[in-house]
């Protein structure tokens, strides 16, 4: 048998010790790594995007749901095990009451001064007050009641059903009352045709909506801010529009008939004036003709008179004409004398 020296035994013992120590180190490192991985699985972060804010509430097995502040927009913090977070919109929101696809509400019905019903479509833009203290009170008093929140971020591209119910409860009655109050000051035709009334509705909504909503809110916090209304032109019923169209058509026909009658009368008057002037001109022409004929007759008479003059009488003038034409105007007489023109005598 080989002889084992004390030196060889010590070396083996030392090698075995080193291997055991290395194994222990590896085991410790494994445990630490496992603990780190477990801690990483347990410790997570929570973040809010630029257009959202989260209300932070305590949770867990033994912790009460006390308020722990907020996760403000564009920020991140460590998510505490058992705690809960409720996200609300920090950007501008719109309450649409046009009644179309994607609208939040139907158009509001109003009654005019002359007791006709019209529909008023439009929209109101606003922002939720995301001051952490105010937002927490909003969550406690209203948001939590109607489930008007999301439990994770990046979901506000679509409207939450609870948020929709909450808006209908607080916004719809206030808008309905405000628009109807303005409408009662005007007739339905004015509401339908006058664009300045629509501008008045916008101003009134912007000025009074916050107050009317606040009257229904618990406490004195202004949960909603920055109202900006965009009211469209009120719409009467189809029957009223048709009646107005018929009325305007009748008015246009009457105006056309009146214009034609006036034109016809003016034409007839012009014709009568022209005919009167023509008759007047004809009469004047006849008078002028008669006067000319009379002047000619007078001239002819004067000429004839100058021709007869030398003969002393018309009879002698005619006798002379007869003689010139080879006639004997004188019948035989006895005991008389034959007369000759006074200018000479016969031998």
Automatic annotation (TrEMBL):
Highest taxon, organism lineage: Bacteria
Matches recorded under InterPro entries: Band_7
Transmembrane segments: 21-43
Coiled-coil segments: 262-309
Domain Band residues, every copy: 80-264
Keywords: Coiled coil, Membrane, Transmembrane, Transmembrane helix
Descriptive protein name: Band 7 domain-containing protein
């Amino acid at each position: 048998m080989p002889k084992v020296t004390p030196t060889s035994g010590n070396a083996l013992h030392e090698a075995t010790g080193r291997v055991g120590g290395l194994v222990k180190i590896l085991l410790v490192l494994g445990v630490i790594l496992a603990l780190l991985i477990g801690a990483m699985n347990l410790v997570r972060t929570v973040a809010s995007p630029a257009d959202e804010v989260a209300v932070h509430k305590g949770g867990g097995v033994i912790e009460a749901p006390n308020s722990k502040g907020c996760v403000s927009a564009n920020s991140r913090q460590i998510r505490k095990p058992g705690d809960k977070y409720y996200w609300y919109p920090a950007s501008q929101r719109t309450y649409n009451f046009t009644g179309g696809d994607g609208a939040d509400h139907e158009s509001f019905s109003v009654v005019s001064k002359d007791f006709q019903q019209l529909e008023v479509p439009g929209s109101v833009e606003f922002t939720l007050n995301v001051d952490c203290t105010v937002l927490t009170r909003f969550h406690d008093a209203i948001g939590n009641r109607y489930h008007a929140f999301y439990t994770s971020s990046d979901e506000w591209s679509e409207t939450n059903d609870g948020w929709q119910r909450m808006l209908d409860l607080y916004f719809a009655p206030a808008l309905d009352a405000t628009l109807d109050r303005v409408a009662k000051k005007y007739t339905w035709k004015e509401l339908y045709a006058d664009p300045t009334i629509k501008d008045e509705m916008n101003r009134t909504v912007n000025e009074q909506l916050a107050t009317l909503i606040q009257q229904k809110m618990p406490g004195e916090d202004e949960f909603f801010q920055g109202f900006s209304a965009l009211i469209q032109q009120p719409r009467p019923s189809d029957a009223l529009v048709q009646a107005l169209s018929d009325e305007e058509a009748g008015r246009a026909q009457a105006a056309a008939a009146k214009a034609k009658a006036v034109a016809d009368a003016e034409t007839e008057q012009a014709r009568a004036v022209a005919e009167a002037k023509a008759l007047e001109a004809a009469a004047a022409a006849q008078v002028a003709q008669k006067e000319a004929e009379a002047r000619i007759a007078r001239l002819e008479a004067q000429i004839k008179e100058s021709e007869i003059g030398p003969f002393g009488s018309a009879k002698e003038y005619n006798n002379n004409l007869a003689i010139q034409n080879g006639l004997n105007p004188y019948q035989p007489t006895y005991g008389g004398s034959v007369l000759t023109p006074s200018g000479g005598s016969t031998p």
